């Protein structure tokens, strides 16, 4: 009888099990790596006490590991720190994820860490470095608008929110991060007003140290609002001068990889850091041309893409998660939240920055739907990102009070849905033909609760500059 094939998930669990066995058997730290094809190998840190490759215990471990993980076995099942050219790139990498801590017991056991070596996807679970004071102030003014599923009205909501906030006197910057399917630019500016360069240009040029003097932002002239506010646009791609070449797709295909430093001692060149630099450059340009942005709206790509991962985990101080009450939405967010749940420090950092948006919520005849959506959202948060309530009555009141687990009725909790109403009049709306569309009564009615609630969650505008 033939052996059942080893699948991706089974192989990975086997690799983790063998890593823990090796850490306990040799008393050494072990890093489990997985490459772009999903193939795993064990790196054993034997720099202080080198292991012999022909040691029977080593040979047995290699054979057992290979048998349990094939065809997802690395080209070298076991690698040893004493033989690696630059072992610190693995054993001291700042994006390692701890699985088992080192135990200093009588027998001793090394730690086990995971180090993913992939093209995309690692940023969902990558811890956010502690930002500097300046970076933290920038992040607090950024709002990510994200939907696990597309087609839920996220981009239109971005434009409506930008117009509303500008109407309160704020300076608003909208950054189009839906790089595979740009759209918000068309709602904010006529094609002739798009700047020469976009976010993809900064990511490409910045990768080779050539990002100075890019024209990245333009003031919106197509979005009506009253007052002294401003709306600025940073598009996904630029609008070059007539006759100049511009290959958007070629740039898009090259932006996501983490890069090595251009020179010795260069700082972080990972995709997340480069995207942060691009957005900061846009903010700086608005400041130079007018005034510091009071709020930055990040129109993120939908789905499990690295753009969305970086936007939610690294770039934003508030993340609006668009949801419609159907199984695919909740299964999608459950996959995402479960990734964060496995990294408790990351989960604690993110959860209070999240808010559910009840997208496309019908206002007529749906009195029971919003409470039902709240129930499902609270259940999702309660089983993943909220602290688990201990049913053991031995815990003290102080210990229970320290747990973060907002009740269902808490209107300020992450799970409390912010509704956007939906009507048939919105279906045939063509913003390109009717530039006054945000001022239409049914549009204002549909988004009123959404815009006013988000405004309440934002930091106050920058103080007005003193007149000399």
Can you give the mean pLDDT? 84
What percentage of residues falls in helices of 4 or more residues? 25-40%
**Residue windows where pLDDT falls under 50 for at least 5 positions:** none
Largest sheet: 8 strands, mixed
Instruction: Please give the count of helices.
Output: 15
- Helices and strands, in order, run as HEEHEHEEHEHEHHEEHHEHEHHEHHEH
Beta-strand percent range: 15-25%
Describe the global form: globular
| Derived structural class | alpha/beta
Pfam families: CbiA
Domain CobQ/CobB/MinD/ParA nucleotide binding: 144-185
Region (Disordered): 388-414
Protein name: AAA family ATPase
How would you describe the overall organization of this protein?
This protein is of the alpha/beta class. About 35% of the residues lie in helices and about 15% in strands. It is built from 15 helices and 13 strands. The strands form 2 sheets. It has an 8-stranded mixed β-sheet with strand order 8-9-7-10-6-11-12-13, with helices on both faces. Strands 3-2-1-5-4 form a 5-stranded mixed β-sheet. Helix 1 runs antiparallel to helix 2 (about 55-70), helix 5 (about 155-165) packs across helix 15 and helix 9 (about 270-290) crosses helix 10 (about 305-315). The N and C termini lie far apart (about 90 Å). The mean pLDDT is about 85.
């Amino acid at each position: 009888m033939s052996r059942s094939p080893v699948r991706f998930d089974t192989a990975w669990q086997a690799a983790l099990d063998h890593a823990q066995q090796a850490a306990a058997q040799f008393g050494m730290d072990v890093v489990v790596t997985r490459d772009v094809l999903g193939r795993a190998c064990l790196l054993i840190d034997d720099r202080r006490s080198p292991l012999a490759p022909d040691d029977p215990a080593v040979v047995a471990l290699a054979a057992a590991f290979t048998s349990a993980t094939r065809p997802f076995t690395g080209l070298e099942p076991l690698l040893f720190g004493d033989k690696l050219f630059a072992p610190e790139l693995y054993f001291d990498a700042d994006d390692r994820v701890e699985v088992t801590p080192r135990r200093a017991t009588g027998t001793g056991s090394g730690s086990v860490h995971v180090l993913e070596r992939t093209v995309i996807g690692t940023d969902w679970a990558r811890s956010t470095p502690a930002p500097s004071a300046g970076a933290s102030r920038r992040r607090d003014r950024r709002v990510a608008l994200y939907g696990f599923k597309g087609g839920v009205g996220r981009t239109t909501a971005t434009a409506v929110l930008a117009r509303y906030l500008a109407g309160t006197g704020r300076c608003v910057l909208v950054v189009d991060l839906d790089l595979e399917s740009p759209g918000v630019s068309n709602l904010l500016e006529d094609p002739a007003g798009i700047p020469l360069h976009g976010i993809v240009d900064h990511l490409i040029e910045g990768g080779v140290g050539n990002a100075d003097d890019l024209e990245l932002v333009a003031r919106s002239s197509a979005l009506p609002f009253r007052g002294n506010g401003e709306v600025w646009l940073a598009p996904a791609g630029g609008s070059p001068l007539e006759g100049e070449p511009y290959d958007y797709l070629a740039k898009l295909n090259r932006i996501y990889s983490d890069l090595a430093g251009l020179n010795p001692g260069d700082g972080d060149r990972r995709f997340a850091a480069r995207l942060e630099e691009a957005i900061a450059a846009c903010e700086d340009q608005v400041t130079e041309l007018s005034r510091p942005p009071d709020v930055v709206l990040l129109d993120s790509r939908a789905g499990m893409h690295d753009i969305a991962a970086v936007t939610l985990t690294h770039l934003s101080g508030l993340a609006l998660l668009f949801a419609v009450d159907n199984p695919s939405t909740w299964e999608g967010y459950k996959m995402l939240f479960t990734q964060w749940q496995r990294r408790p420090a990351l989960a604690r950092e993110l959860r209070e920055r999240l808010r559910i948006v009840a997208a496309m919520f019908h206002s007529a005849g749906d009195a029971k739907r919003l409470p039902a959506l709240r129930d499902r959202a609270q259940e999702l948060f309660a089983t993943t990102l909220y602290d688990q309530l201990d049913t053991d009555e031995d815990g003290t009141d102080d210990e229970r009070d320290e747990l973060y687990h907002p009740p269902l009725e808490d209107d300020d909790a992450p799970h409390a849905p912010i509704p956007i109403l939906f009507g048939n009049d919105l279906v045939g709306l063509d913003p390109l033909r009717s530039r006054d569309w945000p001022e239409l009564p049914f549009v204002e009615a549909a988004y009123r609760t959404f815009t006013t609630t988000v405004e309440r969650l934002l930091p106050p505008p920058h103080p007005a500059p003193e007149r000399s």
